[in-house]
Amino acid sequence: MEPKSQFSQFDQLKALAVVNIFETGQPFGEYAALTVLNDAAGISYGISQFTHRSGSLYSVVSLYLDNGGKIGRATLLGNLLRLRSATAAAIDSAANDRTLKNALRAAAVTQEMRAAQQQVAFKRYLGPAIDACFGNGFTLPLSLAVIYDSITHGSWEMIRDRVRLDRYRTSAASFEKRWITEYVKKRHAWLRGIPRLKTTSYRTAFFLAQIVAGNWTLDLPVTVHGFSLSIRNFPADITGNTASAAGPQSTANTANNSTVPSIAERKNAFPAQPSRPPKTAREELADVLAIYDRFESVIQTILTRTDSAKSLWTTVASTLWQTFWAIVSFVIGLPREVWLAVALIAAVLTLAYLYRQFALGRMREMQGLLFLTPAAGRQIEPAGKTNERH
Predict the structure, then answer these.
(1) 343-349-352-357 Cα dihedral, nearest 10 degrees
(2) Mean pLDDT lowest for which of 77-91, 202-216, 238-252?
(3) How much of the chain is in helix, strand and coil states, percent to nearest 5?
(4) Secondary structure element (H or E) that encloses residue 36, with its range
(5) What is the DSSP string of 201-252?
């Protein structure tokens, strides 16, 4: 069933193009693209890099054969059971089968294979991403791209369940941006923490950059993993009425193409730099307080370390001083009472100095509390604090 969509066809195409660049280096991929990944996924093929291990490659080949595809039919039909198996042995043997890989590349020129790739990409990846956005009330194109990329690349459900935000204490728009930001941060940390996936963290790095820039609508042009994506990268056969990997057009879109701007209408449709709304007084105050918090934290750290260093070196010096006098007294044969008295005096002086350092530290703490206490009847909300319950 086609998912309910609050996104225009062009928004879907932008999300599709971003993820395709991640996967193949091209905004709309190559139907014949084929590689063997080094992450045990086996053959990776087509516009959305359908892999053996995920089962998506089997789905594409099976649908191609059901559609009546003839090029490479005998080879693909003979390998169907092997492609259906996700065992390490089946994945490895298929990845090393040159005849199978050549058949896949050859079949990519046919309409049957292109239609199969488009349908599987929509059903397995973009469709569920649209459903996930719809179920959560997400409407921003960047949210769709983030979720679509996660479903395509993997880890969507696992990282999703790690995000804990209360949607009922904030507006829908604010919740969507906060949730997506938190999700991307967690996924970025997860990718960076796994050696075999660390090199793919450019995906989340791109999304974090768009979040920082405030480009929630994925305004073009944008640079995606070294590729400059602009409106001219969207060919007529993709933005027209023909089917695309973004899925079949709805009746509304077919009847009214206003959701997909024409080439003439799109020439100056998007500014080179995303525009941002002016900050409110509350946001500006939060920024100022955040800067103050960082500054105060640095100063307090310096003072604390300075006091600690003074106390440490005072203790060390005192110990060395007492040891020196003990050795001198022993060498020159002074009575025990004399060098014991000297050691006791040194110990008293050391304790007095350490107490002075402690008192100074307490005074700084009290002074800091007095400085941070708001005036009577006035409340200052900490920077970044909102009404949400974490």
Answers:
(1) -110
(2) 238-252
(3) 65, 5, 30
(4) strand 34-36
(5) GHHHHHHHHHHHHT-TT-PSPEEETTEEE-GGGS-HHHHSSS-BTTBPPPHH
- What is the per-residue burial (b if ≥16 Cβ within 10 Å, else e) of 205-229? ebbbebbeeebbebbbebebeebeb
- Bridge-based pairing state of the strands 222-224 and 34-36: unpaired
Name, in order, each residue with C-beta under 8 angstroms of 186's C-beta and a sequence gap of 6 or more: 159, 162, 163
How far apart CA 16 and CA 145 sit, in angstroms, is 7
pLDDT value at 128 more than 50: yes
- Token look-up 């993820």 returns 19
Question: Higher-confidence residue: 276 or 101?
Answer: 101
Q: How far is CA 27 from CA 24, 61, 66, 234, 240, in A?
A: 8, 23, 28, 8, 16
Place of tokens 């206490």: 373
Q: What is the pLDDT of residues 153-201, one digit of tens each?
A: 988 999 999 998 888 777 877 999 999 999 999 999 999 999 999 999 9
**Cα gap 369→148, rounded to integer Å:** 48
Distance CA 53, CA 350 (A): 70
Quote the pLDDT of residue 80.
Answer: 96
For residue 226, which amino acid is it? G
- Taking alpha carbons only, the member of 151, 121, 104, 123 closest to residue 50 is 121
